[in-house]
């Protein structure tokens, strides 16, 4: 579950990042005071027969969003927009807060536009996160066992620390930082811990090319394609490509659920012919979390009926913006 909390001063209201169609928060404020209260020029009063005066003020609390700096998790709370913020650093700014129904209407009316909006929102609000990642894939015509991993992720530079906890396979842990480890031929590499205990006695870790033959046998998606941002990027890229060829079917499919959290569910059809160099799948069913607007689950099928699974990718227990630093992805510092 994604945890959000914000400790603000009394009477403050914190709102999530503004949506596609903003609406001002309603102004409403009325208080009752006794007839002995002094009159002011800015209040409109009406005295009733009992001597009680009802004053209507012209200002009201506004919906606000934090304009804050990233900081360490131990010193901060989580703002609804996803930013870890120091309470002392919050500077409130008025912002419109669209109703959930407006997001849903947007998703129905323009699903591709809605995805672009969610992607932009992610790029604005999310710097890093940790999560539980569950995947199951068909590789070389064979279904691999479901794997579960604990993941730490940082967007800039693109960094992934993935530790498998179920069906470990050949790799128990992988650490990748974009452009950090490159071989003489310019190939991106990642550190890997062997999955077997006996092998680890001989080799504690080894650098492996992320697009090499071993990586391709282990997963349909390489480690540099991991995460929410890359999911948005891939979904939108192939949708735009199919749209340009008049071959896209993308629709909002209604309310869904992932790990007990409500989602917006979408279905996309592409002209898949088995060659993933052209298109990655025929049917893609994916879920956007209704609170965080992140793609928390993707199910790819080779057939439009959804019977032949190519791969499923699910993100749960997401904690946004814990405040990771480059040292958190340094193999020497974290004793990888």
Report on the architecture of this protein.
This protein is α+β, with helices and mostly antiparallel strands. Helix content is 16%, strand content 35%.
Query: What ranges have pLDDT less than 50 throughout 5 or more consecutive residues?
Result: 1-97
Q: Beta fraction of the residues? A: 25-35%
Indicate the overall shape: globular
- Overall mean pLDDT stands at 78
Quote the CATH topology of the domain at 103-329. Answer: outer membrane lipoprotein receptor (LolB), chain A
Number of strands: 19
For the biggest sheet, the summary is: 12 strands, antiparallel
Chain-wise SSE layout:
Blueprint: E1 30-34, E2 44-47, E3 52-56, E4 64-66, E5 77-78, E6 84-85, E7 92-94, H1 100-109, H2 111-125, E8 128-139, E9 142-143, E10 147-154, E11 159-166, E12 171-177, E13 189-194, H3 197-202, E14 206-209, H4 213-218, H5 228-244, E15 249-258, E16 261-269, E17 283-289, E18 295-301, E19 309-320
Antiparallel strand pairs: 1-3, 2-3, 4-7, 5-6, 8-9, 8-10, 8-19, 10-11, 11-12, 12-13, 13-14, 15-16, 16-17, 17-18, 18-19
Write a brief caption for the model.
With 336 residues, this protein is an alpha+beta fold.
Tags for this model:
single chain, 336 residues, alpha+beta, outer membrane lipoprotein receptor (LolB), chain A, twelve-stranded antiparallel sheet, 19 strands, disordered N terminus
